[in-house]
């Protein structure tokens, strides 16, 4: 028990689990952002005005990128980003203007989503409340396979962290013992099946022989 507590309290273990939890939450939040924008009235008491403005700006940036809107048309949005910098000064002259603007869009969208994640994911109560509201209104999007896989990996990692070397060996021994019993049972079942089939074959042969003699006696 002491070993288990020490194992769980190691900094490396804590960091790994935090990374898993943080990544899952971020991916879940990114999936529900469009739903939050479409049903903003549901979150007036849960999400503060500035965070909601950040979410709206993020969705506007995404829409502008998807519709190939010139970057200059969304200057009023990108200038409000805390990490704003005039990214056009970094344009690569070897690339076309459209290519440079596409790169700039991705940069600004990354900064935008980081701001939102920083505001919501690190406020666990807010994030849980948002999911609870969406679930109660049946608006929570189905989890993507990648999120399900991450949760499975997290649970698997947690199980390994909770298992001491002694418990791991005992578990392996139990599996080996079970496999041995299964193999032995299969051998016994195969033997019984053979004996049963042989008995049925002998009985069929006996019946055929009786029928033959009965037919022979009747005919003579």
Automatic annotation (TrEMBL):
It comes from the Eukaryota. It is found in: Cytoplasm, Cytoskeleton, Flagellum axoneme. Residues 175-202 form a coiled coil. InterPro entries: DRC10. The keyword Repeat does not apply. Keywords: Cell projection, Cilium, Coiled coil, Cytoplasm, Cytoskeleton, Flagellum. The keyword Cytoplasm applies. PANTHER family: DYNEIN REGULATORY COMPLEX PROTEIN 10, IQ DOMAIN-CONTAINING PROTEIN D. Belongs to the DRC10 family. Component of the nexin-dynein regulatory complex (N-DRC), a key regulator of ciliary/flagellar motility which maintains the alignment and integrity of the distal axoneme and regulates microtubule sliding in motile axonemes. This is Dynein regulatory complex protein 10.
